[in-house]
Every structure is written in structure tokens, then in C-alpha cells.
Specification:
This protein has about 190 residues and is an alpha+beta fold. It has helices at about 1-5, 10-35, 65-85, 90-120, and strands at about 45, 50, 135-140, 150-155, 160-165, 175-185, 190. A five-stranded mixed β-barrel has the order 3-4-5-7-6. A two-stranded antiparallel ribbon has the order 1-2. Residues about 40-60 have low confidence and may be disordered.
Length: about 190
Amino acid sequence: MEFFSSLEPLQKLFWAIAGVATLIFLIQTILTFIGLGADSDIDVSTGDMDMSGDTSGDDALNGVFSFRNLVNFLLGYGWAGVLLYGEIQKGWALQAVAIITGLALVGAFVLMYRAIMKLSHDGSFRMEEAVGLRAYVYLRIPASRQGRGIVQISVKGSVHEIDAVTDAGEPIPTGGYVTVREVLGEDLLLVE
């Protein structure tokens, strides 16, 4: 406490902000690594795909206003003030540099978060995505829609087994290849 009480008021402010922001940042980081630290108020828009479901259209500011980014700003602001206190003599110049450092840290985190979100992959499978693709006949497909067979098809890097029918006059044997022409239901493809 002697160290803290011997500091000048502006220096105390920087140390207090840096200490509290660092503590909160460490808690957020630990909670994130154990799966409890989701920042629910972050909105990131990546081109046509809005990751938040927000359709306000204000893409320029999405992801900037959140508690996590407030902590990031205070972290940059406080530590810049602590580290540069003896180097920059004018208080207003030190404040300006600290504010710019805090904003730069927020900008870096927003850009990093957006880059990470671009790496996310929607692995869900929709039957319509199979139309036009080649499929392997896993189980014989009876002729003229007289019964169902099974095809294996790769969509988005994963293989799916789906029931299939054909309009062809002859059955399609196991081991053959077909092209998906149409989706007939939630679990049925028309192939040829």
C-alpha cells in the first residue's frame, strides 16, 4: 500500500484501472477456457452471413460494444498509462496515447474475432444440397419406383446414407453410380 499511496493521482488512476482490468481479463480468460465465458453481447457480421442473427444493418459497429471489449479498452488504456507515465510528461498527451492504445487493443480483438468467425463451418446437412451430385449405390434400387434402395453421398465432406428411388425401367445394381435429380421427401432422393 505504501507504493500505491506514494503515487501521483493520475498514476494511481492508471494503476487502478490496469489492475482491475487485468483481474477481470484473467477471470474472463479462465472462464472461456472452461466453457463458461461466452460473451453473449458480441455481434459479428461476416459479409452476407450475420453470426448474431441481428439484421440491423449497422455492420461497421457490430462487435465493438460489449463488456469484453470494454475490459480490453481499459486493459490497453491502464497499462499504456502505467508504462508510459515517466516517458510522457504532459498529462493530456499521456491520456491521448493511453486512449489510442486502448482503442487499438479493442480494434485488434474485434479483427481477430471476425477472422476466427470466418473459420467457422456450418456442417449441417440439407437434402437439397445433394441435387446434381454423384452417389454410390449401397443397396440395389428397384426399377420404376417399385421400392427403395440406399445410396451413399458425400456432402460437405461427410458421407450420408439416404433412401433412393428411380424412374428407370431397370433396377440399379449395388456398386453402381447414380446422379441425384430431385429430393422427394425428408429422407428420399430420385436418382438416375
